[in-house]
Amino acid sequence: MDFEGEGGFSHAIELCNGCGTCRQTDSNTMCPTYRASKEEIQTTRGRANMLRAGISGEISEEEMFSERFQEEVLDLCVGCKGCKSDCPTGVDMAKIKTEVKHEYHEREGAGLRERLFANIDSLAALGSRFAPLSNWGPKLPGARTAMERVAGIAAERELPHFERESLEEWFAARGGSKISVADANEKALLFPDTYTNYSNTTPGKAAILTLEAAGVHVEIPDDVVSSGRPAYSKGFLDEARGRAATNVAALDPYVRDGWSVVFTEPSDAVMFQDEYLDLLPDDDPTRRVSGDAYGVLEYIDVLRLDEEIDFTDREESLTYHGHCNQKALNKDHHAVGVLRRAGYAVDPLDSGCCGMAGSFGYEEEHYDLSQAIGNILFEQVDESGGEEVVAPGTSCRTQLGDRPDETAPRHPIERVALAIAR
After folding, report:
1. What is the pTM of this model?
2. What angle do CA 357, 243, 363 make, to 5 degrees?
3. Whether the predicted pLDDT of 24 surpasses 90
4. Is it true that the peptide bond before 31 is cis, omega within 30 degrees of 0?
5. For 233, which of 80, 130, 307, 312 is 20 to 30 Å away at the CA?
6. Are 400 and 408 in contact (CB under 8 A)?
7. How confident is the model at residue 158 (pLDDT cuts 50, 70, 90)?
8. What one-character-per-residue DSSP string does 219-239 give?
9. Contact partners, residue 319, CB within 8 Å, separation at least 6
10. Which numeric CATH code is attached to 310-418?
11. Average pLDDT in the 3-21 region?
């Protein structure tokens, strides 16, 4: 990746000055694994010190790219990006980790589970095509145990459910947007992220209905691929770069024609807004597409689109848990503003990572730590006065919904859509 902005890869690590802000446990996002484990090596500083020892020769190159180093130093970084915003010097350990994981794959190869998670978009498309049969398989006796033994996927986790009709298929069947281009105030492309498209279409439908209520002409682009976030998170940078290049090439003509790219999934929005700038050449198409990418509630808030919507009076109070990737770019507050103008009383939690972090919480050896991180969030939720929890991140809703006797929270855009007067 491009580390020119940090002064090179080694300087990106040297940005850590040892101040120990990553050891804070009472506010902001950084550092979730330290909060749960209280082990120095799980802080941003601890990881930076180990990587500094590697590039300086204090530990050998063989040790730095050993399986033990990867598992004990890097794999427990959940990629929340909290250090990018919370660290006084802006150490981006998520980016550094991904670069090192890529080099590790180049040297040592990658396992089955890593490749499965990196290409989850292809598996999800198959799961949707063969639903409901694909949803029955994990419920068969012994299926979870077998998956844990073969692929290292924690047997305790509920696996994603697949919908037979994808969001793209639903949108085509309804005849596309209900707002014509001629009558529209704005034009938006709703990016069909993997989870919203194949596993839970409700947030996508709510986003479309809300945007149309604000006079936006909405389309779902059919020439894009996965954002590349799963591949990026697992350190497969060639695959992530290829998907990023495909998406920029497909979307740039639209952006030049006045369209914006909108996402219901925060991690995909941030992938476009931040990581694409490191993966791709610093050219006009990349900057244009990145600069016109928005989370759906960010888009509504920035353009004040909700001023065009007639909302009903609401009496509900909501507890809002934001997504750590959006917090890292200071884009998390937009949802709270829109929800409040839609009539809700909102308690925004000063919460960190939920502990699920994409595939991290599914991995058998990380399950206990994932739950320990989650327990910190669970306590904050229980102490909040909100009648209902909302969270924009798929991982966050999964983690919160995996608690005993709890149902998965809704995406906040669903609550906004429910408030629209009809």
Report:
1. 0.95
2. 25
3. no
4. yes
5. 130
6. yes
7. confident
8. E--SS----SHHHHHTT-HHH
9. 346, 347, 349, 381, 384, 385, 386, 388, 389, 390
10. 3.40.50
11. 91
Which tokens in the block code for residue 302? 């920035």
Domain coordinates in residue numbering, the chain: 4-108, 310-418
- Helix, strand, or coil here: 200? coil
- Going by DSSP bridges, is the β-strand pair 317-320/259-263 parallel, antiparallel, or unpaired? unpaired
On whether the CB atoms of residues 393 and 354 are closer than 8 A, the answer is yes
Binned at pLDDT 50, 70 and 90, residue 115 comes out as very high
How long is the chain?
A: 422
Banded model confidence at residue 250, pLDDT cuts 50, 70, 90: very high
CB proximity list for 273: less than 8 A, separation 6 or greater: 290, 293, 329, 331
- Which region, left, alpha or beta, applies to residue 258 given φ > 0 means left and ψ of -120 to 50 means alpha? left
The model's pLDDT over 290-320, given as tens digits with 9 standing for 90+, comes to 999 999 999 999 999 999 999 998 889 999 9
- Tokens, residue 215: 């006079």
- Alpha-carbon torsion (70, 71, 74, 75), positive or negative: positive
- Return the number of other C-beta atoms located less than 10 Å from residue 32's C-beta: 29
Task: Order across the sheet with 186-190: list the strands.
Answer: 216-219, 186-190, 259-263, 293-295
186 φ, ψ to 5°?
A: -145, 165
**Local confidence band at 230 (pLDDT 50, 70, 90 cut-offs):** very high
Residue 349 identity (one-letter amino acid): L
pLDDT tier, 40 (very low <50, low <70, confident <90, very high otherwise): very high
Cis amide linkage into residue 132, ω under 30° from 0 = yes
- If you write DSSP's letter for every residue of 352-397 in order, what string do you get? ---S-TTTGGGBGGGHHHHHHHHHHHHHHHHHS--SEEE-S-HHHH
* Distance, CA of 160 to CA of 138 (rounded, Å): 10
Greatest alpha-carbon pair distance for the chain in Å reads 66
Dig out the tokens for 402 from the structure. Answer: 């995996």
- 3-state DSSP: the chain helix, strand, coil percent, rounded to 5? 55, 10, 35
Q: Which two tokens stand for residue 214?
A: 């604000």
The pLDDT value given to residue 405: 79
